[in-house]
Amino acid sequence: MKFIHTADWHLGKLVHGVYMTEDQRYFLEQFVELVAEEKPDAVVIAGDLYDRSVPPTDAVELLNEMLFKINVDLNTPIVAIGGNHDSAERLSFGSSWYKKSQFYLSGKLNSDFSPFHINGVNFYLVPYAEPGLVRHLMEDDSIHSHDDAMKRIIGKIEETMNPDEPNVLVGHAFVLGGKTSDSERTLSVGGSGCVSASLFEPFSYTALGHLHSPDALKHEKIRYSGSLLKYSFSEAKQEKSISIIEMKENGQFDLRTRSLKPNKDMREIAGYLAELMDPGFHNNQDCGDYLKITLHDEGALIDPINKLRQIYPNVLHLERKLAITDMKKKSTFTSLKEEKKSELELFSKFYEEMTTADFTEEKRSMMADIIEQVRKEESLK
Amino acid sequence: MKFIHTADWHLGKLVHGVYMTEDQRYFLEQFVELVAEEKPDAVVIAGDLYDRSVPPTDAVELLNEMLFKINVDLNTPIVAIGGNHDSAERLSFGSSWYKKSQFYLSGKLNSDFSPFHINGVNFYLVPYAEPGLVRHLMEDDSIHSHDDAMKRIIGKIEETMNPDEPNVLVGHAFVLGGKTSDSERTLSVGGSGCVSASLFEPFSYTALGHLHSPDALKHEKIRYSGSLLKYSFSEAKQEKSISIIEMKENGQFDLRTRSLKPNKDMREIAGYLAELMDPGFHNNQDCGDYLKITLHDEGALIDPINKLRQIYPNVLHLERKLAITDMKKKSTFTSLKEEKKSELELFSKFYEEMTTADFTEEKRSMMADIIEQVRKEESLK
C-alpha cells in the first residue's frame, strides 16, 4: 500500500508582504501531476492546509480545486487533518459529504478515534487541538500540556487498535527534538508545546505536520514531510520534498522522497553591491527567485534596493552588513546628536561614518558654503 | 414534484447585539422535522445562508449540521445559492463533492447555466453577483445594472431551456415593487439594484431570496419565501413561513405555506412603565420574546430598562415616546445650556422638563441648600 505524505501547505501565506498563492498554485499543479504518476493509494496531508483561520478567497478556491483534482479526477483517497493555522470548524464544513468519495478530513478533534481503512492500512487522524479542548473532550482534568493531551488520545486509540495491522497516525504537533524554522507558529506561549516521540511507538508510521523541514526529526518511524514551499529565509537551505511511503502488511515500510521545482526558489545572497550587479555574477542564476540580500558595502549607497530590483525583481529583504567597528561608530554618532555641535562638525562626523572616506578640507569648505547659504535663506523668510 | 422554498437564513446574524445562532438552531431543528414530515423532492434555499462572508464558527457548524440532516439523513436533494451576504468563494468550497449526494450548491456565478434536474423539474441556479462580475463573465460591456445582468443571464438560459418543461429559477435579487425591511442590505449604492419582474416570465416559478417578507411581492409566479426568522423590528408584524410548491408537469403549481414557532418571537410593545410592569398585562404574554418597548411616560424614570428586564429579560431596544411639545422643550433646554445661567435656574428648567411637575418654592429652597453645600465642599478641596 502506497501513500504520499505531505503537510504544511499554508495556502494564502504572506511572506514579507507577498502572497504566495500563485506560487502555491504552480507547485500544486506539479504535485497533482506527481500524484497522477505515482498512483498512490492515498494522499496524506498532515495539517496547516491554510495559513490562517480565515484564508483569502483565492486560497480557498485553490484548495478546493486541487483537492478535487486529486480526490475525484484522479480517484485518489485523501486523508487530511487541521493544523494549528487552520480553523477547526471552518475547515470541517462538508467533511461528512467528502467521506463518500474517500476524502477523509478531520478538521476538529472529536471523541471518535476510529480509523479510516485504506487498502489494509488504518489511518488514525489527530487534528491539532489545544490541551484545554482535549481536557474537556476527554473529561480529564489532569491534561495540561500537549504531551498530556497526545498521551491521552493515543491511549484512547490503543484501546481498540489492532497492533498486528499497519497503523498510521496522522498528527500535527511539535515532537521533542524537532528542528524549528521561522515560519512555524509557536504552539504554546510558556510551556514547551512539545510531545515526546516515544508516545508514537505503537504506530507503524507517524505522518506529522508542523515543522517545515523534512529533516526536522531524525526518527525511523516518525516523520515530518516538511512544508510545501520555503516560507521563511531560515528555510532557504532546506531541501523540500514529498515523502512516499510503501507500507507492507507487517507494518514495515520503505520511504523515498521526490522533489518538485518551485516557481521561484527562496534564497539568500550576499556581497558588495557592485558584485551583485555584475552580469558575470547574476547571469548564472535565477534572478527571479525570492531573495534576501545582504550587502557588504560599508559606505553610503544611493537607493540600493531599486538598483538591485532591476536585476532581482523579487528581493524580499535587504540587509546591510555592519562590522562591529561600524556599530561602535554608530553609537558614537547617536551620542553626538545629543550634544551641541555645529552643523559642520555634525556633518563631518556623519560623512566619515557613512562613507569611510576623509572629509577633506575642500569638502569641508564646500559644505560650509552650503550651510551658510541655507542660513541666509532661512533668515530671509 | 414537491419542493420546499426557503431563503435568507442569515446564520450567525447579530440583532441589536444578540447572536441569533441558538434561535436559528431551535428553528432549523423544527424545519428539519417539517422536511421529514413533508418528504419533499427538494429543499430550495435562495441565498443568504449566512449573514456575512466570514460567519462565526458556530454558524458554520450549524449550517453543516442542518444541511447534512436534510440531505443525507433525510435523503432530500438540496438546491442552494449564495446571496449578497454570503462569500461566493467560501460558500462554494466543496460544491463539487456535494453534487454526488444531490446537494446542488452554487455559491458563485459561473458561465455554466445548465440546470439541475430533480424529478422532472429543471432548476436554474443564479447566485447573487455584482453587475461588474456578470459583465466580465459574459464579456458584455453593456451590462451595468442588476437588471442588465439578470436579463443577460436569463437570455443565456433561454438559449437551451425547454419551455415545455417545468423550469424553476432560483435567484437572489431585489425584484421591482418588492417591499423592503430594515435587515436587508441594500444591493446597490446609487442606482436602484432592482430587477424587473417581467424578466422571469419564461419560468414556471421563480424562487427568490433577499427580501425578508413572504408578502414582499404580489406575483403569481415569482415569490420571496421570506427569511427564516424576524431579523429586525420592522419585520415584527410579518408572518414568516415556509413555502411548499407542488409542481405539475405542465409547469402549473399549487402553493401552500407552513409556519413554525420560533424560540422567541420578535415583537413591539408600548405603554406606560407601570402598565407594562403590571402582572395583569404581562402574565398574558410570552415575556421572553425579543422586544422593542416604547414607553409613554413623559417624566423622569429611574433605570427603566433594568426594571423592565426583570419582567422582560430580552428587551433589545427601549424608546421613550416624546410628544412634540416635549421635543420643543428639549430643544429649549439644549439651548439653555449654552447660556450662562445659575445652577439653580438650570436645574429648575431641567426638573420641569423631566418631570412635568412644578419646581415649587420648597423644592427650590432644598436645591439651593444642596448647591450651597457642594460649593463649600469644593472650596475646601
UniProtKB/TrEMBL annotation, chains A, B:
InterPro entries: Calcineurin-like_PHP (IPR004843), DNA_Repair-Maintenance_Comp (IPR050535), Metallo-depent_PP-like (IPR029052), Mre11_N (IPR041796), SbcD (IPR004593), SbcD_C (IPR026843). It comes from the Bacteria. Signal peptide: none annotated. Residues 264-355 form the Nuclease SbcCD subunit D C-terminal domain. Pfam families: Metallophos, SbcD_C. CDD domains: MPP_Mre11_N. Residues 1-213 form the Calcineurin-like phosphoesterase domain. The keyword Transferase does not apply. One of its GO terms (molecular function) is exonuclease activity. Keywords: DNA recombination, DNA replication, Endonuclease, Exonuclease, Hydrolase, Nuclease. Heterodimer of SbcC and SbcD. SbcCD cleaves DNA hairpin structures. These structures can inhibit DNA replication and are intermediates in certain DNA recombination reactions. The complex acts as a 3'->5' double strand exonuclease that can open hairpins. It also has a 5' single-strand endonuclease activity. Belongs to the SbcD family. This is Nuclease SbcCD subunit D. It comes from Cytobacillus purgationiresistens.
